[in-house]
Design the sequence.
């Protein structure tokens, strides 16, 4: 029988990734992380082997997905498909919560070289 217990995670003890993300909680099929990043930071186009669903708590971010560009601000949600070529540019100091499926931090899926 599958584990059916409810878990509470103390975020002060949560691990952080190479890009500064805080891994909040992880299951076998999805995980959740906190993304805090200063304005102006970003990276090159890259792909990731997971789907990303995000919610902007504060700030603004420009997300390039292939040839499309969307800008998300406080209260906006976004979806970046698994394997899609993407790039992020933080326009205003950003706090976002993201869910990834499968979990980003497993099997080096969140390797910082693609940021």
Sequence:
């Amino acid at each position: 029988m599958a584990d059916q217990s409810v878990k509470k995670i103390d975020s002060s003890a949560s691990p952080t990734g190479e890009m500064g993300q805080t891994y909040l909680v992880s299951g076998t099929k999805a995980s959740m992380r906190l993304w805090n990043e200063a304005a102006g930071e970003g990276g090159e186009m890259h792909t990731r082997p997971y789907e990303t669903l995000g919610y902007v708590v504060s700030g603004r971010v420009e997300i390039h997905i292939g040839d499309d560009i969307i800008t998300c601000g406080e209260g906006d949600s976004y979806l970046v498909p698994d394997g899609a070529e993407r790039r992020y540019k933080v326009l205003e100091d950003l706090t976002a919560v993201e869910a990834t499926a499968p979990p980003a931090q497993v099997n080096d899926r969140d390797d910082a070289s693609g940021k």
The first strand starts at residue 22 and ends at 26. The chain has no helices and six strands. The chain has a mean pLDDT of 87. The chain has one domain: 17-109.
